[in-house]
Amino acid sequence: MTVESILSELEAYANPVRKEHNASFFKSGKGEYAEGDQFVGVSVPDVRKVVANHKDTSLEDIDGLLQSPFHEVRLAGIFILVGQMEQTEKRSWSKTHSPEETEETRRKIYEFYLNHTSSVNNWDLVDSSALYIVGSYLSDKDRQPLYQLAHSKNLWEQRIAIVSTYAFIRNGDTADTYAIASILLHHPHDLIHKAVGWMLREAGKRDLAGLTFFLDQHAAEMPRTMLRYSLEKLSADKRKHYMKLRQKS
């Protein structure tokens, strides 16, 4: 009933113009990366309004949401899952749950997410969740699962791998960002170029020396979009320098 209820609540916000826009914006046409995806026609703020009434949805029902053919229903499931992971980090949670219970809940959410990556199948779904679930969980653990995702043949798992490192970047830890960026350096898809460039840019805000070292090694071979994204916060002179290296290759 939760799945049906959430779909019904989303439909109350549906707009046919937005439905058409979303289908185009998220590339659901024939031959595009989200071919066949379906849309209700609901804005992200309205999806969040609906989710606010379903914060305690069980993993079983979230599974149902993630199996939906409708993009916004899957997004609702993602938002609920992220909210439940974030709840475990709040002081109010720690007052009623032991550290062992907290860790077990976090593990279940993390494993559930990785078991449903086939449903996290567009860039907004990845970017709304990867750092908050995968990155957050692995912050104090072995990061090897990210390298397995980076070597996956699945575009979205590869994007999860690099975007998850944002959680580490926020703590001043950039090593995995550079390492996974190296793995994805020659990826053929623009969505990976953008994600890697974005994470390199964010890493550079906290570790300019690390970004400079990475660019000195790889700028000449980086896809143009990836390079441009990574340079956005550098000085004009440095941007010009690295773009020249790219042009000479």
TrEMBL record:
Protein name as catalogued: DNA alkylation repair protein
One Pfam family it belongs to: DNA_alkylation
InterPro entries in the record: ARM-type_fold, DNA_alkylation
SUPFAM superfamilies the UniProt entry points to: ARM repeat (SSF48371)
Superkingdom, natural source: Bacteria
